[in-house]
Amino acid sequence: IRDRSTQSTGALKRKLSALHKRAVTGLAVDPMNSTIISISLDGSIIYWSFETGQELERVNVGQSLFQMRIHEDTALFAVWCEDFSIRLYDMESRTMVRCFRGHSNAITDMAFSPDGRWLVSSSTDRSIRVWDIPSSNCIDWFEVEKAVTSLDFSGPLLVTTHVQDLAIRLWGNIGYFSDLFLRPVKKSRGVVLNPSDASSVGKHREAEEEEGATDDIDDDEENEDVFVKQLEKDLITFSQMPRSRWISLNSIDVIKARNKPIQPPKKPERAPFFLPSLREFPSLAPSSSSSSSTSSSATSEVSSRVLSDQTIVLAKSPLAKLLEEAETSETYDEVRKFVLNLTTVGLDLEIRSLRTTVSMTDPTMNEDLKRMMKFLQSELDSLSNFELVQALMNHIIKIYGEVIATDNDLLVISQQMKRSEREAWIRLEGMLLNTMGIIGFLSNIQT
């Protein structure tokens, strides 16, 4: 260790004892400048005291370690091993917290994202993998034509260099431009990106979207993994529905009015000149007998239309049918899946298709709305899809506020929902205030 405060070149301040049996391949210092970590080809990780230079602790991995990357804000460091796995260690507890496996050849470089949530790694197998540290999963990976020699983050961009290539490549994160819907990645991909051709990135993304569309239709098991499973019954869980779907539901009328064409389509002033007329083809002209039969059939059609209008029965929407089945089976799994797969326009159409009436001449006309509100009450009680329930209830009150005000059963359900929502918000607010207090206390501690 050299002290740079004494002279420009730095004087030798302390020399650590050579306790590694083979070459040292990586060094790092913790954010507090109290501990030095070293790794070696002998498969050991040694923690040294920065002040005394003495060994504090030794961890034997059992295989050679080649490279180290540290994230100072989270006090985590990553090393890659002889078996092509990446191990993540915590400097404070000095234990391994994550192990990532997926590369099939030597790893060339690693880098933490600025927020410390992702770890990106590259390998001589020409793959770049994105590891999500909290969930310990590989959330994305792709192949390049030439293996990556080095990579790092520059803000939201990933910077890479490649074998036998003098250019520096920049990769953008699509999560900054649109809503991401994370799902388990596939083990193999047929599309290989060419780092020298920027247009291939778009082709790769289009091919993956087409693949994903077919997989959603053909593979029901993979579709089930999309939905969030509640970790604990006491935890408030949000849905994985893209934010743009439910947040624009309240302003759907404004969006429709904005997208409405300014002028209606104009009819052509006259028919095209190449269309034949009946005068040119007399055989096509209707005879008097056919005209009389046509008039009689038209009269019968009119009468049949009148009869059908008098005996018309309102058809139920798909959502209303699922709600009716859920009331019998006492489970809302199918209703939940159906709602989460709807678009903004689809949600608005299904809610408006619920049969209701303001007058209480037929109380059964409001059964669809009662079932819908009971479904939302069930979601509130289970603390799942919390933000989606808020948006749906807001939209229902906006459309059916007058109906709810005139129906006592609907009023009772709405009051129960109000109490459940208030209890959830009070509990969530208490947890937030408690967390803010702890953070404020810790930030004021003088070290």
Write a structural description.
It is a single chain. With 447 residues, the protein is of the alpha+beta class. It is 36% helix and 21% strand. It is built from 11 helices and 17 strands. The strands form 5 sheets. A 4-stranded antiparallel β-sheet has the order 3-4-5-6, with no helix packed on it. A 4-stranded antiparallel β-sheet has the order 7-8-9-10, with no helix packed on it. The radius of gyration is 33 Å and the shape is elongated.
List keywords for this structure.
four-stranded antiparallel beta sheet, elongated, 11 helices, alpha+beta, 17 strands, 36% helix, 447 residues
Short description:
This protein has 447 residues and is α+β, with helices and mostly antiparallel strands.
